[in-house]
Amino acid sequence: MGALTTTAIIAEYGAYYLNSGQNLARLKMLLRFGMETDKICTPIVTDDTIYQMGLVKTKSLVQSFQKAWTPKGEMVFTPNKIELHKLKVDLDVYPDDIEASWLGFLAANSLTRKEWPLIRFIMESYLFGQINDDMERNEIYKGVYAAPTANEAGLDGKSMNGFKYMLQHTGVNHDTTVGALDKATVYDQYEKAFELVLEEYQQTDMVIACAPAWKRAFLKDKRSLGYYNLSGANQIDDTLDFSPARVVGLPSMAGTNDWFITPKSNLLSISKKGENANKIDVQESKRCVSFLTDWYKGVGFGMSEIVWTNVAAAE
């Protein structure tokens, strides 16, 4: 069965094509998320399906002088790995489904269905935008991998482990002092959360990641407290005063009350065959046009020790 549902169009406009000037400009689509979370991550391309790293912890070297040889110092190496999961797109379309309908302007006389205008419309207006929206909305932050059921399409949000899964399972610092976020006090709460950060990192390029609604609440609370950017005309910026930390609203975190703080460089987005997310193989068989692609994706933290969050650890 194809992926074109025209029931409502046919019920309203009839099961026939009548050229009344309809065109692509009359086909409207809701806005979708772009890959905003990926934009703040450090991109890594790999040929591996598990990206392996090592964390090096050091102990002090300096000591007072004496003639005796008194060795001091140590380097401790611990593993850190991020697993990549393979994702795919499988879509079947029967272009004939739209020919005898108001949508018939997307049909053509060619026997080769993949040459019809409908296919170009699907490529340009549906596939790539939907892939980005799916990744941002369901996978990059909220995703929890589940092995697929044989011969059944996978469920939304089950294709890979997202950043929230990493916050719950990788030994980051879990805060219990800031309390439930409140729109009236969120600026002070984020300041209090930032003070949990190790002092040596408080002058680095840190992100305070949250849902877009909480970033807006932060800016409104900052305005109410009278904190303005003196370099602009009564501008409210997204920084915490006296620090380079920025509050970043991520669409992938929409609908949550979560926050996490880490250096921007610590956010890793790892891909294998990642360019395939922007490529589609179009195949035709017996009047069915199929669209397919596949690639690998994984996200995580380079060092979990420098991540602070209100997301509770998994039990």
Report the helical percentage. 10-25%
Specify the structural class. alpha/beta
| % residues in beta strands | 15-25%
Q: Tell how many strands the DSSP assignment holds.
A: 12
User: Which descriptor suits the 3D outline?
Assistant: elongated
Termini separation (Å)?
42 Å
Poorly predicted runs are none
SS summary, helix count:
6
Order of helices and strands: HHEEEEHHEHEHEEEEEE
How would a textbook summarize the main sheet?
Answer: 5 strands, mixed
Count of all domains: 2
> What does the average pLDDT come to?
93
State Rg.
Answer: 26 Å
What would your notes on this structure say?
With 315 residues, the protein is α/β, with parallel strands linked by helices. The chain has helices at residues 7-13, 36-39, 117-139, 163-169, 186-194, 212-224; strands spanning 42-45, 50-59, 74-83, 85-93, 173-174, 206-210, 246-249, 259-263, 267-272, 281-285, 288-301, 308-309. It is built from six helices and twelve strands. α6 links the parallel β6 and β7. The chain starts with 6 loop residues before the first helix and ends in a 6-residue tail after the last strand.
